[in-house]
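Renewal narrative, Specific Aim 1. Our central claim is that a sequence can be written position by position from structural information alone. The example that follows is taken directly from our test logs and has not been curated for this report. It begins with the structure tokens describing the chain, in the order in which they were read.
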């Protein structure tokens, strides 16, 4: 394994910020993970495990080692009449896995089509879209402890999945390198078309009994129309989480703003952050090369040469507007480093 020094990260993360890392190394084989971690000295630290860097905002150079996980492989672990269980290497591009499974007729992740990033990053934030979260098909994952090199299998319960959240974002943050993820998919899938925009798009296309292939196509179309392609314009998807507030606080807001967009949530009421940001007139705004996307204001973009600091400043201004107007503090969904 070659450890590169003073390497640019501009093309290794989707925001496309011009920053460097002191060291960079690519992990191509699972069995190399433990020896690699053991070989890194104090000088190489801190370590950062990265897939496609699709959920990161760098506000400066990284002072340690970036390990890019590029391991490949999908193997079938169990297969019966109803379900199929597959183990996917962490470095597999997530959307390639979705495309592969949909192509085979294995259902459960079609709503998660076109989410940027690698498979290993999926459980960390419990990726979700269009009414489905990864936790619904998650079996287990295998990870290696970065300091001790010990391998551990995490069950679904041990991952403590929540909305864009897991144990790997909270108590075990930065402690594990995920090696592979096991998914349990359906051989007789019933498409989930509850999400409003999916239903509308299917209707528009005249599809009354959608297959998982139809759902994948519709999700890809909606995402391509609404979300900027990171290959063309730097971004990391939703910059903020949709805030969950108490029901009594919501009732007060609803009186003042009857058109407020909300969804029921087990912990209260979830609000559409995109709506809150749009109400504060941020949609499509641009300050230098840092901007708020025209179609989806929850997404901040780098028009070319924005620094991470400039994107962060824009995010702070948006937060400030939303808190002044609605009394709600937006939490970043992106990891800010
Ligand atoms: N809305 C506006 N103005 C807009 C866009 C949206 O007011 O310009 C309101 C609309 O009422 C709309 C609602 O916001 O119905 C929700 O919008 P959307 O369906 O685009 O979903 P979202 O809640 O803004 C979440 C995820 C996305 C995911 C979509 C679809 C989070 C933080 N974001 O966005 O995930 O693709 O749902 O399921 O939960 C990501 O995590 O990076 C991401 C893109």
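The sequence written for that structure reads:
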């Amino acid at each position: 394994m070659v450890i590169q020094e003073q390497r640019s990260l501009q093309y290794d993360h989707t925001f496309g910020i011009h920053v460097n890392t002191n060291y960079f190394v690519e992990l191509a084989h699972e069995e190399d993970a433990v020896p690699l971690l053991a070989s890194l000295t104090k000088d190489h630290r801190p370590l950062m495990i990265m897939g496609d860097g699709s959920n990161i905002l760098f506000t400066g150079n990284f002072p340690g080692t970036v390990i890019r996980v590029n391991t490949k492989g999908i193997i079938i672990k169990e297969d019966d009449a109803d379900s199929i269980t597959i183990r996917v290497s962490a470095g597999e591009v997530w959307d390639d896995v979705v495309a592969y499974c949909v192509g085979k007729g294995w259902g459960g992740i079609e709503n998660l089509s076109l989410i940027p990033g690698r498979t290993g990053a999926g459980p960390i934030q419990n990726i979700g879209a269009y009414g489905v979260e990864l936790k619904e098909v998650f079996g287990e994952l295998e990870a290696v402890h970065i300091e001790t090199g010990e391998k551990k299998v995490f069950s679904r319960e041990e991952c403590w999945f929540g909305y864009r959240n897991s144990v790997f974002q909270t108590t075990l943050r930065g402690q594990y390198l995920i090696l592979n993820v096991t998914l349990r998919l359906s051989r007789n899938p019933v498409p989930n078309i509850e999400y409003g925009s999916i239903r509308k798009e299917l209707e528009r296309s005249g599809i009354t009994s959608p297959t998982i292939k139809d759902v994948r196509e519709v999700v890809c179309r909606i995402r391509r129309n609404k979300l900027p392609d990171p290959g063309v314009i730097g971004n990391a998807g939703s910059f903020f989480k949709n805030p969950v507030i108490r029901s009594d606080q919501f009732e007060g807001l609803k009186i003042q703003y009857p058109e407020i967009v909300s969804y029921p949530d087990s912990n209260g009421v979830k609000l559409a952050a995109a709506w809150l940001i749009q109400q504060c007139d941020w949609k499509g705004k641009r300050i230098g090369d840092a901007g708020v996307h025209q179609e989806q204001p929850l997404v901040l973009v780098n028009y070319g040469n924005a620094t991470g600091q400039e994107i962060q400043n824009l995010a702070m201004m948006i937060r400030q507007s939303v808190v002044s107007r609605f009394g709600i503090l937006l939490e970043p969904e992106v990891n800010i480093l």
